Amino acid sequence: MENSISIRNITKAFGEKKVLDNISLKIGKGEIFGLLGPSGAGKTTLIKILTGQLKAENGTSIINGVDSQKLTGKDYSRFGIMMDNFGVYDRLSCFDNLKIFARVYDIGNDRINKALEAVGLSEAKKTAASNLSKGMKSRLRLARVFMIDPEILFLDEPTSGLDPATADEIQKMILAEKDKGKTIFLTTHTMREAEKLCNNIALLNEGKIVEYGSPKEICRRYNHQKKLKIHLTDGTEKEIPHDENSAEIISELIKSGRAETIHTTEPDLEMVFMELTGKELTA
Ligand SMILES: Nc1ncnc2c1ncn2[C@@H]1O[C@H](COP(=O)(O)OP(=O)(O)OP(=O)(O)O)[C@@H](O)[C@H]1O
Ligand SMILES: [Mg+2]
What we know:
CATH class of the largest domain: Alpha Beta
Bound molecules: adenosine-5'-triphosphate, magnesium ion
Order of helices and strands: EEEHEEHEHHHEHEHEEHEEHEH
CATH superfamily of the largest domain: P-loop containing nucleotide triphosphate hydrolases
Strand order of the largest sheet: 6-7-8-3-9-10
Strand content: 25-35%
Shape: globular
Number of helices: 10
Structural class: alpha/beta
Number of domains: 3
C-alpha cells in the first residue's frame, strides 16, 4: 500500500526530558490512523513535528512525499491541522474566522459556506465565536480543515471534552472524509473512538510505541485467557475455556435451550494498555 506518512526514528527531547524516543511508523494512504496514549505521552509533540511546527532532534518524517521539516506554503494546502493551539478568534463570526484562513489558501466564499454546512454551522454563520458552545467551536475548527479539502487531516483529540452525541457526529464527519479517500492521523484518549474509527493504532507510552496494529488485532494478541462467556437464559453467566471441549459444552447448553448469547472474552484496548503500561488510557 502507498504510504501517506512515513516516520523514521523520530526523537525529541525538551531539555533533559526525552519526549519521543525513536518513533517509526507508516501510515497508508486512505487510512485512519490513531495515536493513543495518556496525557503527556508525546502525541501532540509528534503531530507538531509531522506538520513542521517543531523540529525533531533526529529522524525523518515524510508527509505526502515531502520532508516535514522542509514544508513550504503550497504543501500546507495539502494537509489540514485541527488542534487546540490553532485558536478560534472569539470576536469574529464563524464565517469571518474561516475567511481569514481562506485568504491564505485562496479559497472562495462558496467553499467556506460548504465547509460550514458540512459541520452543521450554516445557521451560526454570523454568530461570534465567543457565543459558540464547546462543541460548536470544535465544529468550527473542523470546518477550517474541511475548507482546505486536504489530502491528509491531522486531528489532535478532535472529540475531547465533547458530549457523546456531538462526539458521535464529529466521528461520522471523520469517517465521511475517509470515504472520500483522505488519510487521517488522529490522537485520542478514548479507546472506543479508536475502535470505532481507526484502521490502525499505535499505543504511545513515555515516548515509545508499545503496540501497533488494528484495534482488533491488538486485542486478539493479548487474549491470553482464551475463554468463552455464555449468558444463560436464567440470567447467570458461565465462563468456559476456549479449547477442544468447548463445542460439546456449548452444544449441550444450546440443545437444552439454556444458552442465550456466547462471546469470546477478548480484552479491550483499555485492558491491553493497562497490561502494557500499568496506566489507564483515559485521562
Ligand atoms: N514546548 C515544550 N517545552 C517543554 N516541554 C514540553 C513542550 N511541549 C511539550 N512538552 C512536554 O512533553 C511531554 C509530551 O507532551 P505532549 O503535549 O506531546 O503530550 P500529549 O500526549 O499530547 O498529552 P495530552 O494527552 O495531555 O494532550 C509532556 O511532558 C510535556 O510537558
Ligand atoms: Mg496533546
